[in-house]
Design a protein that fits this description.
mainly alpha; 3-stranded parallel sheet
């Protein structure tokens, strides 16, 4: 059995692929400039990974600044299509597996509708990013199951229900992960049976 080694987001030997700006400075011109620079940095990282035999990599959620925020009205997937095509070719030619992992504020089982809505928008952004690379659904979006809100069974059921708000493309990329405090591997498997999503086992969270 071969072992594929990878790492998450930051290559300390190369420029960052998650440069951003403040909300009040997030003009379309500035956002496009930063996104193009971040994609260029990501290309350098992927080429470095290929040269060093690293075939797994977690792409930063911040490559497109404010990617899921209303301030970003750019059709970045079209404006930067040539860069995305180049990146996707590197990934495919080197048989890499890439993933993305939305942050702690992406809570699909939240009680507040506005948080659920923003979480759905965030997941759709990640799906569009991976789609723009021309990658098949084997390249995943990793997600924790969210909050407990004093009632884990109800919160798990709510996660399953709210996952139905996602597009078919986003659901096809979703993979569920245990965490270190609230949801165990068994909880993730329970949700997986009801959503059809695969599970990733994080041994460090487990321990």
């Amino acid at each position: 059995m071969s072992v594929r080694i990878g790492y998450a987001c930051i290559n300390t030997a190369l420029p960052s692929s998650n440069r951003t700006t403040r909300l009040e400075r997030a003009t379309p011109e500035r956002l496009l400039e930063l996104a193009a620079a971040n994609l260029s940095a990501l290309e350098s990282i992927l080429r470095w990974n290929a040269a060093h035999g690293i075939r797994m990599f977690r792409i930063s959620s911040e490559v497109i600044p404010f990617g899921s925020h209303p301030v970003n009205t750019l059709r970045w997937w079209e404006l930067l299509a040539a860069q995305f095509e180049r990146l996707g070719a590197i990934i495919r030619e080197n048989r890499m597996r890439v993933s993305m992992h939305p942050g702690q504020y992406t809570v699909l089982n939240a009680l507040r509708p506005e948080v659920v809505h923003s979480s759905v928008v965030e997941l759709e952004y990640h799906a569009r990013f991976l789609d723009s690379l021309g990658l098949d659904p084997d390249h995943k979006i990793v997600l924790h199951l969210g909050g407990v809100y004093g009632d884990k069974p109800a919160s798990l059921r709510r996660f399953v229900e709210h996952s139905g708000l996602l597009s078919a493309g986003a659901r096809a990329r979703l993979v569920l992960e245990n965490d270190e405090r609230s949801y165990t591997l068994e909880d993730a498997l329970w949700a997986a049976e009801r959503t059809g999503c695969p599970v990733i086992f994080d041994v460090f969270h487990h321990r």
